[in-house]
Amino acid sequence: MSSLADEPCEACTSDDEPLTSEEYESYLDDLRTDVWEVVDDHHLHAHYEFEDFRDALEFTYEIGELAEEEWHHPDLALAWGEVEVEMWTHKIDGLHKTDFVMAARMDRIYEGYDPAE
Ligand SMILES: C[C@H](O)[C@H](O)[C@H]1CNC2=NC(N)=NC(=O)C2=N1
Asked: Could you tell me where the Acidic residues compositional bias lies (predicted)?
């Protein structure tokens, strides 16, 4: 589905500047609009829904494994039938392309859990 999910996660350095809304706007085209929003031009927020707690737990674990593989980590909140995600690049205290790549990868993983599918 999303070409962004096929892109590599770029290593970011503290010299990188956070993306402006003009710079990140096009990346949103590759993310689920029913899931993701940008908050204060600073971070991405997602609300994923699941059949039950176990699906939410297993999704959370998969996201954790992805984060370890890419060495880029979201904040995760797990509840019955729900997972909240906050994704930004701490090193630059803002948004980097890698945050959008990670979000697209999460959407791809979610395809296997989406109760609406
Ligand atoms: C030491 C530092 O935490 C590491 O370089 C990585 C780990 N995972 C990370 N994850 C996120 N979201 N932002 C970072 O800046 C980041 N840095």
From this structure: 7-20
